[in-house]
């Protein structure tokens, strides 16, 4: 909203300094500071409201050290992240940008699913919360919306690469002579020399008109990614500061990709895919990162509030949509390795237990407890040490992901 106000002041009334709002870097910095301020200052007030409403965590007995001390800690703290993200976004972004619209829808959609789940757990006294099938239906529904919009919307384009990087000293006329924007399901594959994959070509062996049916491949992939990442974030949210901290690191790395991919000069210089209008997502990323860091003020050990499914599902959904929008979803196993390892530990544990029970009559376990962070708790590691080490691993992997810009 403020963006349009300052645009009017700059172009119509020629107010000095108003034009600074046209710069993504300025609005991103402002969004980061504003979201950080909202989440830290008003976060405490939200926590107080949650305490007064007795929105406390019900702890299941798992035999973990310090577990009982967490009983009664306010949950649904994901509301802090959502509010602190959306307010700067609504104030500082171009609200007619299709990528921003999708991210706002994702935030509200996944936040609602998580809120309903937390509400059932707390107020209906049902430890299972929202049934898994309804969560999956919600995630699939969001995937259908995001996949369909990204595929069919006329504002979602990519610029064909010419193989000749755009340099900083090129003139506007030489830039305009570069290949034009086209509709495409092309994405980026890291570490490969020709690091692009066209999803539509998966259908090439089956039909000559494969471009027409590319949505049959693209939309299911989007659904799978959103479901996988949101569930991974949900499983990772098991100890103080783990999900919020690792997510903040991953989101900041994605912010670098959104800024470069949305900038015709930088994308040309680095010879990466230019995606028109995607740079606006950098403002959203800044607001989201600030909200996550501000939330950590209260969620770090010992936590004063838990994000609940309201926060974890929202975080996973946003990260997935960001990566898909900027055509970097193939980097998610690196950027969100902690999410995937946590999910894999649960899948492996359940599969091995069922297999050994069927074959030997007694179920055996690979990990002391799943998800993986609980395994290390069982081994005697303090949760703050586990969290810090997982953060360090995420930072290293984020650097690896960024290096893929040039390492092919």
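Sequence proposed for the structure above (408 residues):
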């Amino acid at each position: 909203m403020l963006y349009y106000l300052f645009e009017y002041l700059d172009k119509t009334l020629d107010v000095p300094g108003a034009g600074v709002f046209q710069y993504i870097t300025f609005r991103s910095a402002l969004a980061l500071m504003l979201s950080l301020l909202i989440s830290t200052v008003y976060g405490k007030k939200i926590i107080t409201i949650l305490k007064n409403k007795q929105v406390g965590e019900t702890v299941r007995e798992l035999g973990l050290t310090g577990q009982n001390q967490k009983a009664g800690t306010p949950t649904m703290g994901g509301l802090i992240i959502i509010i602190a993200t959306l307010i700067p976004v609504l104030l500082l972004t171009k609200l007619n940008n299709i990528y921003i619209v999708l991210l706002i829808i994702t935030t509200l959609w996944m936040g609602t699913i998580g809120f309903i789940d937390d509400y059932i757990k707390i107020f209906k006294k049902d430890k299972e919360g929202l049934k898994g099938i309804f969560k999956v239906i919600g995630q699939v529904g969001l995937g259908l919306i995001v996949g369909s919009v990204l595929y069919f919307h006329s504002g979602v384009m990519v610029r064909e690469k010419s193989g000749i990087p755009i340099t900083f000293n090129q003139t506007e006329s030489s830039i305009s002579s570069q290949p034009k924007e086209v509709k495409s399901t092309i994405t980026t594959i890291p570490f490969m020399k020709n690091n692009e994959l066209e999803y539509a070509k998966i259908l090439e062996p089956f039909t000559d008109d494969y471009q027409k049916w590319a949505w049959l491949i693209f939309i299911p992939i989007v659904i799978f990614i959103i479901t996988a990442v949101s569930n991974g974030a949900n499983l990772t949210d098991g100890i103080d500061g783990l999900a919020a901290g690792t997510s903040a690191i991953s989101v900041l790395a994605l912010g670098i990709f959104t800024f470069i991919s949305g900038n015709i000069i930088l994308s040309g210089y680095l010879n990466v895919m230019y995606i028109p209008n995607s740079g606006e997502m950098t403002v959203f990323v800044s607001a989201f990162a600030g909200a996550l860091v501000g939330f950590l003020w209260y969620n770090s050990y010992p936590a004063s509030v838990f994000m609940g499914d309201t926060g974890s599902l929202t975080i996973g959904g946003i990260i997935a949509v960001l990566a898909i929008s900027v055509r970097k979803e193939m980097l998610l196993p690196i950027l969100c390795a902690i999410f995937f390892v946590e999910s894999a530990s649960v899948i492996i544990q359940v599969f091995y237990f069922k297999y050994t029970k069927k074959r030997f009559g007694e179920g055996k376990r690979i990990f002391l407890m799943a998800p993986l962070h609980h395994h290390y708790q069982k081994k005697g590691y303090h949760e703050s040490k586990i969290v810090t080490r997982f953060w360090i691993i995420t930072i290293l992997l984020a650097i690896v992901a960024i290096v893929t810009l040039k390492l092919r």
